[in-house]
Design a protein that fits this description.
The protein has 272 residues and is an alpha+beta fold. The protein has helices spanning 14-18, 28-34, 77-84, 103-117, 133-176, 178-186, 191-228, 236-262, 266-271, and strands spanning 6-9, 23-26, 43-46, 49-57, 73-74. It folds into three domains: 6-94, no CATH class; 98-130; 137-271, no CATH class. 58% of the residues lie in helices and 8% in strands. Strand 3 and strand 4 form a beta hairpin. The longest helix has 44 residues, at 133-176.
Length: 272
């Protein structure tokens, strides 16, 4: 069964498959969630049908489709179509090729066979989906690229909005602190000292905002991990880069207000 070995008990046999027996092999989490003792010989309800547990699979985790294999229950196919669901079709199937076989050729042969079984004409589109591991990997890579692009766009928007906010605040601060600027200029502060002061303040404001954002993101991530069981990793390189960009945005946003502040003459500034 998908190259899985039993951790306890056994897999169902071909005789049980032919005989449509009501037996099941359960995933590891199914076992731990339902039983506190030896589950072999016990019965569970599968589609409301009492089914004997004959085996427990090894713990495997999530597969390439994102499905938790430890929460699965396996029963004989013949039993499923007659005893459990009473249907003569399946919604999906896994097909494993022998080593060395041509994957593309096999996929095309399966496609032609399914079209023939479904009675599709040449002009009709497939009414089924057929994909390989390469297709799954390609789809996931495209999804990751899309998420990456959206992340970059949202980050740029955030930096622009944050920069405009800092720009507006610093510009207002310069106007309100004209007297302070005039006094500093009167006691000997140079223009570059005024520029440096306001650039430093702007960078500090940006840094505080960045730290608050990182802290909020960390709290949300930990909560998602705790409540949903989604693991996460912290990329220190990305965090450092984000802080660096934030500081740069703060400096650029405060550059014009700082230059405006340095242009105030002491007498005019002290007049208010």
């Amino acid at each position: 069964i998908k190259e899985t070995r039993p951790w306890m008990g056994r897999l169902y046999s071909s005789k049980e498959e032919v005989g449509r027996e009501r037996v099941a092999v359960v995933g590891f989490k199914v076992y731990t969630n339902l039983f506190s003792e030896d589950p072999l010989g016990k019965h569970i309800l599968v589609f409301r049908v009492p089914t004997e547990v004959i085996g427990v699979l090894e713990e495997k985790g999530v597969d390439y489709t994102g499905q938790d294999q430890d929460l699965q229950i396996f029963i004989p196919f013949s039993s499923f179509v007659r005893r459990y669901s009473n249907v003569d079709y399946v919604k999906g199937a896994y097909i494993q090729l022998e080593e060395g076989k041509d994957l593309k050729a096999a996929k095309e042969r399966i496609r032609r066979l399914l079209r023939e079984l479904h009675g599709l004409k040449e002009t009709q589109k497939d009414d089924f989906t057929l994909f390989t591991m390469d297709d799954i990997i390609r789809t996931k890579e495209e999804g990751i690229r899309l998420v990456s692009v959206l992340t970059v766009i949202s980050s740029l928007v955030s930096f622009i909005v944050g920069g405009l906010g800092i720009f507006a605040v610093m510009l207002l601060t310069v106007v309100e602190r004209r007297v302070e600027i005039g006094m500093r200029r009167a006691v000997g502060s140079r223009r570059k000292d005024i520029v440096l002061q306001f650039l430093t303040e702007s960078a500090i404001v940006a840094g505080i905002g960045a730290l608050a954002g990182l802290l909020t993101g960390l709290i949300v991530t930990v909560l998602v991990d705790y409540l949903g069981g989604f693991p996460f990793t912290i990329d220190l390189e990305s965090l450092s880069f984000s802080l660096l960009i934030t500081g740069l945005v703060g400096v650029l946003a405060g550059l014009y207000p700082a230059l405006q502040a340095s242009l105030y003459e002491p007498i005019e500034a002290l007049r208010g």
